[in-house]
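Predict structure. Chain length: 193.
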Amino acid sequence: MNWFKNYNFILASGSPRRKSLMEEAGFKFTVRVPDVDESIPEGLPVEAVASYLAEQKSLVYACEVIPENCIIITADSVVIIDGRILGKPPSKDDARQMLQTISGKTHLVITGVCLRTQKELRVFSNKTKVHVSPMSLEEIDFYVDHCQPFDKAGSYGIQEWLGICKISGIEGSYTNVMGLPMEQLYHELLKII
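Prediction complete.
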């Protein structure tokens, strides 16, 4: 992508899915994982959490001297159902419980993204509705045992077995559900350069 050739992108995320999406979109970038407190202020609406956390991750770089041609990308994704956030499951039992919660229902995935340059801070988010078919306990156990979804919000990855066999539809961006809304990110980057 010649129009981005003069820019140095930093993906400030340890997510292998975000890294893969950036690579597949043709971006040249380096990865730097920020060490940040991800606690959420009391009273923050659930739909604002992803953008808040993306901006908090970006603040790690606020004291650095950012080169003129550098763009730092931070992001955070949340899965919301019945007004509550399903985070990353700490155990198999938690993963099973989360998957039972989303089974046969529609949930919302929101990814917040923050772009930081020497002169600008741009925060945006993307929302996707995800419709999940009912899942048996046997299917849930199979998925948890074979895909080990412990690093994924809501205990699933749309690109894995559950997404292939049990998601009946989505309304919105597929890459947003993976963790980075690439079409929107691309257009927001074009506004900066």
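Summary: The longest strand covers residues 70-81.
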